[in-house]
Structures are given as C-alpha cells and as structure tokens.
Amino acid sequence: MIEDVIKGEKKIKVKIGNYMLEGIKLEEENKLYEFFNLALNKLRYRKAIFNNFLLSEIKNINRLQKIHEIDEYFLKLLDELNKEINLMSLSKGIIFELFICYSFFILFSDIEVMRNLNVYYNNRHFTEIDMLLNGKNRIVGECKNRAIFANDILKLFGLITTLNADFGLLISSKKFNIIKKEEVFYEYNIYILDNLFEKDKNKIYKEVKSLVC
Q: At what angle do helices 92-107 and 201-212 cross, to 10 degrees?
C-alpha cells in the first residue's frame, strides 16, 4: 500500500480501546478519485488497469470518437499520476487496494474512509488493515486481488473481534467458491464482495449500502 499521503488525503489516528490505528483518511476529490471514478464506471478501464494499463481495441465505428475522447482523459490522468506517485510501477495488489478504497469514497459520501492502517497495541505494532469505514457501523475491510481462502476469513474475523467492529468486508477480484457467502456472513459477520471487476457501480453500491450507511 502507498504509505505516503496524496493530495486530498491526511494522516489520522483512531483509538479503539487499548489499540491505536494510524493510517490515511480520504478527504476530498483528487486525481486518483477522478481516475478510479472512470474505472468504476467502465469495465474496460477496470480491465486495463490490471492488464498493464492497455486499453482494448474498439470495433464499433459509431462509438469510436466518443470513446477516444474519454480515453484521452483517462490516459492524461494516468500520465499525471505516474509523475506524482509512479502509479504504473505499483503492484496489482496495491492498485487493487487503492481502487477499492477510492471506490468506497466515491460511492458513500456520508462515511469516513481510511486506508493503509497500522494497528498498535500498547504502543507496539500489532497488525495492518487495508481499510476502515466509519458510518452507521464500523467496518474493517480487507482487499484481495486473488481468490479468497479460509485463512483470509479467519484473520478478518479476528480483527473484527479485536477492534470491536460491527462487520468485516472481504473484497476480491475473483469469484468466491469456498462455501456460501450467506453462511460466512451468518457465522463470522463478514460480508464478501467477490468478482468485483464484473460488477458495475450500481451493483456494488446496492450490495453494501445497508452495511455501511
């Protein structure tokens, strides 16, 4: 994860019992917001981000000009972000985490979104968390740019218990195939948002609105 603060973000500390969380809070729109907002709205941009930033060819002549205009803006933002944070050099896992955090910031304006959190217990480093959401509920979020495994569920369940969170949110780019998602939610208070690249903006919003708002 990017530990440096980007324009539009600020460093924060959150105390929960004997635990201190130090991370980065998203506060206002910036270039990453614009870039990931484009990706959230278009599947081809999401796929481009995780395929060496290559945009697929468009064969529909009638749509070509409009798509080129949007592509130019997408590529312009990519160029600017490369100069600022060297975006294209980041691993796919880190980019996925950033995409998720900014997607929640875009979708849910009435909650606090914090990313890249270090957790300390009595001033000693305890663990790390990808994302923390504070709204109606306190949600601990973990992002996986791969399939979800049983250990991921158990680790997140431990964090939920430790930090007295209301829910856990386990987000993956792959399809979840271990057991039924409903069973995981019932047993562990973990909501699984899987196969994320194939879901549009409204689908993602509807799936998690009742949990975070």
A: 70
Q: Show the 3-state SS of 171-207.
A: EECCCCCCCCHHHHHHHHCEEEECCHHHCCHHHHHHH
- Hey, what domains does the chain have and what are their CATH numbers? 9-27+110-212 (3.40.1350.10), 31-89 (no CATH)
Residues 6+ away with beta carbon under 8 Å from 124: none
Check if the beta carbon of residue 1 is closer than 8 Å to that of residue 94: yes
Q: What is the pLDDT of residues 136-156, one digit of tens each?
A: 899 999 999 999 999 999 999
207: nearest Cα among 129, 107, 127, 80:
107
pLDDT of residue 57: 57
CB 105 within 8 A of CB 42: no
Rounded to two decimals, the pTM is 0.91
- Across 22-56, b (16+ Cβ under 10 Å) vs e yields ebbbbeeebbbbbbbbbbbebeebbebbeeeeeee
Write the pLDDT tens digit of every residue in 175-206. 999 899 999 999 999 999 999 988 889 999 99
SS3 category, 143 = strand
Contacts of 76 (CB under 8 A, 6+ apart): none
